[in-house]
Amino acid sequence: MSANNMSGPQRVNKIIRYKPPSTEANPTLEDPTPDYMNLLGMIFSMCGLMLKLKWCAWIAVYCSFISFANSRSSEDTKQMMSSFMLSISAVVMSYLQNPQPMSPPW
Amino acid sequence: MRSVYLLLPALLLLLALPVSRGRYNDDFDDGEDLADFADDNDFAEFEDVSEDTAAEPETAPPPRVAPPAQPAEDDEDEATVELEEDGQEDGFEDSDTQDQDMYSKYDPDEFDGMEKPSQSLKDPLIIHTVPAHLQNSWESYYMEILMVTGLLAYIMNYIIGKNKNSRLATAWFNSHRELLESNFALVGDDGTSKDAVSTGKLNQENEHIYNLWCSGRVCCEGMLIQLKFVKRQDLLNVLARMMRPVCDQVQIKVTLNDEDMDTFVFAVGTKKAMARMQKEMQDLSEFCSDKPKSGAKYGLPELLAILTEMGEVTDGVMDSKMVHYITNHADKIESIHFSDQFSGAKVVQEDGQPLKLPETKKTLLFTFNVPGMGNTSPKDMDTLLPLMNMVIYSIDKVKKLRLNREGKQKADKNRARVEENFLKQTHNQRQEAAQTRREEKKRAEKERIMSEEDPERQRRLEEAAQRRDQKKIEKKQMKMKQIKVKAM
User: Fold this and answer.
1) What pLDDT does residue B288 have?
2) Which domain holds residue A50?
3) What topology in the membrane does the UniProt record assign (chain B) (predicted)?
4) N or C: which end of chain A has fewer CB within 10 A?
């Protein structure tokens, strides 16, 4: 669909630079999954550590993985790594304190 | 890089398990010595009847105890056999023959008043099962193995999904690159580089969202294309999609300069999308208050509906070429929205906040569904090329479309009406806000006067405040008089 004239419809003088959409509108439009999962992961890992529940710690690991998979590229990797490490430390600590295998709930 | 971040924790996890188990294995090296605890045994007196294993109750041969080894905590009170698995066979062979000997040597009188030994055997034998973590088998850890397998499956799915999305995006860009480059001077910009040079590639916002900004064309300011794929990298999402299939979407937003578009609001799309947008979008809810009309009236397929400010707009937009485009690709069109009053979705305002009229921008919005309902292959991206042609055609068309005099008048009236309504709604709120501000000021003033220690200064400040109030009242009275005179 280019125009007939030689330069086509492009106009170099009309170039406008890309402005990422303002962050004001973003929080409502953006997917809240990674933030929720991050928070859940932290809560579960704290539960797992304090109450010595193995299944809490495992769910925390899963939550931090899910949060990582859904995260935006603009997000801090430090935050991701810290939630990973917290959940893995929760798992390791629960096993060190009580090496019995996890019993299924049924 | 991100895969490394994932693998690191998984590796750590796998290493942690054996470490935690290994600690307790040492205890069993002492197991062999358990057999020699003759010193602690109640029956130590009878040890001279040479048994090479730990003693057992005198009467019947002890039942063969199942657990292969027991921790030292098991106490001697119970009539259990403190034997190791390998020691057990030897013990039993000898004990059978020795039993008779032992028995014959005992003096029945010794046990007067005591319970018969055989009765002690009737006390239930409490056989402890060895705690699972002390058994030398991995099978007891099946839940953990399941968990780790699940994690590995998640990681595999992440890598596969990420790659698939990336391939789809590249395929889309490759098929559309030529068309875009022939229409726009700047194709691909992330906004960070100093010069306005085409990056020539997509901007990856996420593992499932890719952006492309094109600019430098007659009739428009710029075009933002968002490839919104489904979250193939998230296993939970993949499972959810098995229940409820979702499409990949391509969203195109063309922003126009003020002179590029006349004043009208128009939308066409699937019935569901139109119903939703009429509720959600600020401009559609204000300007297109009628229910969505069926597209059949204009030669469109039944499944499409139209929202418009006035009939003339529809006639103007739906020329034969547009109808042709839309009819041929109706399955891929989710919504098309042209508006000069576009301000996004309705913003939910908290109570008591003074509203400002939202900023509007002349915009054309297109949302297309990628065929395949989630199971897309890179080849399907080529089928979207005609739709991009339609977008370019629309940009040129909207520039040329001008309402006639009546239409323009109607449109202007509509906009004035909307603005008035808005001001009315906010009038009360603005008044309240002004009132509260005035009260706040007065209160602050009073507090200042009260907090003044010096009574002299206090009196002076009070007088000053009184004078100010008096002046204000006089001013108001003057105003009222003026209004009355004018009214007359």
Assistant:
1) 86
2) 31-69
3) Single-pass type I membrane protein
4) C
Q: For residue A37, is it within any domain?
A: yes
Q: Which two tokens stand for residue B274?
A: 């139109």
Chain B CA closest to residue A64: B6
Give tens-digit pLDDT for B332-355: 999 999 999 998 888 776 665 556
Who among A2, A70, A92 is closest to B183 (CB)? Answer: A2
Q: CA of B456 to nearest chain A CA: how many angstroms apart?
A: 51
- Per-residue pLDDT, averaged over B34-59, amounts to 52
Q: Return d(Cα B67, Cα B239) in angstroms, integer.
A: 44
Q: Is there a contact between B143 and A103 if contact means CB atoms under 8 Å apart?
A: yes
Indicate whether A78 belongs to any domain.
Answer: no
Q: Which DSSP symbol is given to A75?
A: S
Q: Which of B261, B266, B267, B264 is nearest to B400 (CA)?
A: B261
Residues 6+ apart with CB under 8 A from B143: A101, A102, A103, A104
Beta carbons of A65 and B236 less than 8 Å apart: no
Quick check: is A92 in a domain?
no
Q: Classify burial at B117, counting beta carbons within 10 Å of its beta carbon; exposed 0-12, middle 13-18, buried 19 or more.
A: middle
pLDDT digits (tens, 9 = 90+) for A79-102: 889 999 999 999 999 999 888 888
A18:B132 CB<8 A: no
DSSP secondary-structure letter at B291? P
Which residue ranges make up each domain of chain B?
Answer: 149-347+354-403, 410-451, 452-487
Decide if B369 contacts B330 (C-beta within 8 A).
Answer: no
| pLDDT per position as a tens digit, B373-408 | 878 888 888 999 999 999 999 999 999 999 889 999
CB contacts, 8 Å: B132 with chain A: 100-101
Q: Å from A43 to nearest chain B CA?
A: 19
**B54 vs B200 pLDDT, higher one:** B200
Residue A62 forms part of a structural domain: yes
Q: Which residue has the higher pLDDT, B290 or B274?
A: B274
Mutation for A interface: B184, B197, B260, B394, most A CBs within 10 A: B184
